[in-house]
């Protein structure tokens, strides 16, 4: 980390300032993003996160990108809320594999009152194993957020998805304001926030600027900012959307890094479709977190090996043993396994 370049943390970015960043020559934008990144993070470390789906599909919302919406026929297999025992079992397996954070996601508009005892029991049970907890369950009112925080939930994920202007093109069943209220309830309850959006949904650059402005001007920046690239799923309204130019994606990452210097900017959905060069540029632009699916902890995950090969080629280490203030040790343990795996002869050897 370079302490000599430590920009102040701002919450008053104007749209014009953000637009001007997007308009910089590519090298200048990358240089600025790298400078900010190096002032706040170890530049060659990337955090690894994981997710367990506790309830899949049959969601009543109409998010145009989402295969879990009950309104689109995407062939996704629906699953009911996982039994608490099963979740604890999965969490135990995760712990046995070395994880210290367990993230649980449910495809709901919001949790119903009847669901709350289950999810809070899950949180308590997972917490009792000595794991850090994270959930994404849709909208939360104030008392639900308090209840989850009281049960021991550490992080809550709720994305803004896009700019306020473009939002209506993507979702009609809940408002932007609903989302901001959930985020505010999460903060008020004292939990950490994971919040970002999706690009490549047919939006303009001004919408990407608008999304980042909303995130950067929150009273506190989200601790994690996932920037997703649309995954076009057959059966969803966005299945035939035109591809976003990878440079526009990289610019979005770089601007997010500049606006929110201390947040983990996460490459999430859509990463699998990116080639190694695009991913490398995203890391250069300041992305320092990647997302693995739920299978990582319970089954051999070839994707993990592919990712570790790329890490090795780029000289990137999973963020790990030195735990940052705003992050848990889970990544450290997962990463430990990955590092062990990296010893395996199947890995790329730059010396050969
Ligand atoms: S609320 Fe979540 S699960 Fe439901 S359709 Fe929207 S993105 Fe998908």
What does the model show?
Strand 8 (224-229), helix 9 (246-259) and strand 9 form a beta-alpha-beta unit. It contains 13 helices and eleven strands. By secondary structure, it is of the alpha/beta class. 40% of the residues lie in helices and 12% in strands. The chain has helices spanning 15-22, 26-40, 84-96, 116-128, 142-151, 167-170, 176-188, 205-216, 246-259, 276-284, 295-298, 302-314, 330-342; strands at 45-49, 52-55, 101-106, 132-136, 155-157, 192-194, 197-199, 224-229, 264-267, 289-291, 317-318. It has one domain (25-342): TIM Barrel (Alpha-Beta Barrel). It is globular. Iron/sulfur cluster (SF4) is lined by residues 59, 61, 63, 66, 68-69, 107, 138.
């Amino acid at each position: 980390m370079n302490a000599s370049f430590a920009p102040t943390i701002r919450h008053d970015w104007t749209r014009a300032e953000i637009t001007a960043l997007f308009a910089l020559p590519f090298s200048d934008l990358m240089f600025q993003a790298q400078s900010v990144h190096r002032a706040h993070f170890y530049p060659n470390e990337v955090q690894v996160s994981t997710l367990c789906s506790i309830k899949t599909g049959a969601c009543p919302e109409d998010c145009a990108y989402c295969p879990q919406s009950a309104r689109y026929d995407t062939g996704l297999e629906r699953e009911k809320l996982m039994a608490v025992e099963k979740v604890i079992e999965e969490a135990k397996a995760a712990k046995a594999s070395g994880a210290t954070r367990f993230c649980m996601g449910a495809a709901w508009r919001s949790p119903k009152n009847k669901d709350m005892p289950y999810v809070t029991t899950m949180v308590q049970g997972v917490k009792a194993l000595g794991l850090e907890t994270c959930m994404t369950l849709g909208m939360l009112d104030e008392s639900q957020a308090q209840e989850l925080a009281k049960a021991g939930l550490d992080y809550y994920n709720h994305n803004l998805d896009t700019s306020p202007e473009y939002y209506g093109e993507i979702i009609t069943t809940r408002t932007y304001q609903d989302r901001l209220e959930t985020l505010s309830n999460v903060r008020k309850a004292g939990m950490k926030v994971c919040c970002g959006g999706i690009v490549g949904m047919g939006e303009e650059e001004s919408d990407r600027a608008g999304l980042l402005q909303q995130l950067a001007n929150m009273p506190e920046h989200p601790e994690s900012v996932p920037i997703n690239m649309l995954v076009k799923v057959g059966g969803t309204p966005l299945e035939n959307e035109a591809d976003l130019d990878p440079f526009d994606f990289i610019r979005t990452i770089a601007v997010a890094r500049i606006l929110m210097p201390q947040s983990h900017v996460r490459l999430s959905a859509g990463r699998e479709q990116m080639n190694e060069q695009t991913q490398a540029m995203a890391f250069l632009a300041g992305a320092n977190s990647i997302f693995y699916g739920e299978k990582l902890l319970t089954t051999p995950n070839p994707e993990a090996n592919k990712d570790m090969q790329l890490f090795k080629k780029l000289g990137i280490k999973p963020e790990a043993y030195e735990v940052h203030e705003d992050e848990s040790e889970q990544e450290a343990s997962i990463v430990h396994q990955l590092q062990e795996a990296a010893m395996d002869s199947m890995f790329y050897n730059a010396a050969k």
